[in-house]
Amino acid sequence: MKKLSGIIFSNIYDGALGDLTAKRTVASLPFGGRYRQIDFVLSSMVNSNITSVGVITKYNYESLMDHLGSCEEWDLNRKNGGLYIIPPFAFGRSDVYHGKLEALHTALNFLKSQNTEYIVLSDTITICNIDYRDVLSNHIASGKDVTAIASKPRSGADNYPAVFEVDRNKSAKSITVNCPAGKNSYVGFGMFVMEREALIKVVEECVSAGFYHFEKDFLQKYFNEGKITVNVYNFEGTVLRNRDIATYLKNNLKLTDEKVHSGLFKPAAPIYTKVRDEIPTYYGDTSSVNECIVADGCVIRGELENSVLFRDVKVEESAKVIGSVIMQGTKIGKGAYIENAIIDKNVTITEGARLIGAKHSPVIVKKGETI
């Protein structure tokens, strides 16, 4: 029997990213110059020999389906297993789900059809390159009902969906939700491993009782009532959390750091994405590029500093881009100045325009706009 199947939540936390997810899912949000956020968790699953993955959708999933296509790039276009798109009304519901438990209820047919012992569940706001086979081995060895993947917090000032206090064996002693984390705590990734049959039972039981939040209504509640035991898997690799617009900008720019970049993009565990055949980027005589990620097909005649550019971006002479994310197909006119901004796809920045935001509150230009 195969060990693991996967479930990916594509729409959880859409609201936290504002205009960036107004017309797309969190999962299909561009990241890192040529990827989408779902690429990281989906690639990790494939690299961990998970060959059956369900992607639960809610709304605005046209771009996600376009990106995934036949899933040939992830080797999931197969007769047995493969990738399943699970829409919000797949289980006879008349309304869209409110939380992960209700989302899993729409995926019950998928869960019941699997011939695996275990399921790994994952959000897409957490960017990392993880081997779920190691997590499964750790889960089985722990003997616990649920394993939560977590790491030490980077900052105690942030609120996290789940925070764990653990003993010396990494068994949870307490679980709190939507709160800051102490320096000795572990913060969850929104990734969990548990037995498939147990998950089905939990979903049916909780949804029938009107509960819909996985972390609060199941994990914390059942733990406090002594119904489940929880193991915490400490992931020590590179992890980025795109919790909001400010961290999305910050984490894109972190990829210019060689240590962060090498921690995510590993030759032995590649991150796959939709293949697009593009010409190489052209750098003109007047161009200047410093600590940037620039995708294929761009034309650079201006100045770039600590920025991330997606495919087919054009930056004209004397234009300057600093600390910004510029998505596919955007055109930046002569003499334009952009700093601390997120420019969505196919935007036109006119000659001499100035867009200046703050690192904690970047300027956002919506898809297709002209400024």
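Second entry:
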Amino acid sequence: MKRAALICVLVLLAGLAGCSSSSKHLAYVTSPTSNSISAFRVSNHSGKFTPVIGSPFPAGSSPTSIVLDPADKFAYAANQTGNDISLFKIDNSTGGISEIRPRTPAGIGPAALAMDSGGAFLFAANVSSSDISIYSINAGTGALTEVAGSRFALPSGASPAALTVSPSGKYLYVASSTLGLVFGYSIGSGGALQEVQSPVAVGSGPFSLAIDPGEHFVYVANSLSDTISVLSLDASTGTLTALPNSPFTAGNNPISLAIDSAGKFLYVANLGGNNVSAFALDSSTGVPTELTTPKSPFAAGTRPVFITIDSTGKFVYVANENSRDISAFTIDSTTGGLTNGGIAASLGSGPSWIATTK
């Protein structure tokens, strides 16, 4: 046995973190136009995607987003034209998924999902009915149950396009793509929402939200105004305050955001620029500064619509809608720069969302 493998075995036997028992993990990619979800095994070393046998798997009507529970046992997909949510059981040995029926009703046009880090609640942003569906999650079966006060209404025409739960699980933030506002709510013990303040104005067309790991700042991609808003977050109350110079200049149609696990770098998929912008984050002020060495932005595929950082923290993946593929970049942990940028996977139809197991 090689020395590295022997050390890994000893670490695992001791019950310590920091060593994976597998050299690969899994990635799931939604494709709305083909009503399917593709599954891949992902190399922890190279980031390479290898299709799982049986992939792509049939899904609901226009699966737009997907999230996994903390134990990587279940996957949930929002079916935007089906107005419901699909539950899938993950087979970690094969990587395949199998749907558990019946599907759970949502509002009209569920476009995005968010789950708290403990896996207790699932939230769905219903873009056409301008409300939020709230579900409690059965950890054993994965089943969803609507909580009291679910279908939490937003102002008429708010069209919520993005939502995210704070790392502590205490707050939910929702972006209105039409009103240019971010709403903030505290999450009660039963999942019910309580508004923490009046909505905060951001730029035009906010389509993505990201919170730093320390829960100090909320970042908002304003796709129609080519800017990023930065909101200071009071972790004791959940209230938001725009930074003095916010919003900050971004790329062409910023559509999706991702922050690394150390809270040092912000990555932005630019829909109109066919590229990814990279920013260094000031941990004390929250101000983003675009990288100049290496120089940002970095070329991606055609019409990138979603960006995520792999669970290993080593790779950035971008879902390119029109070129029907996934771009993979390697992160330089010192500079935040991106390299390689090759195609990790090609698909038969445009991808919209990526979720990876641990």
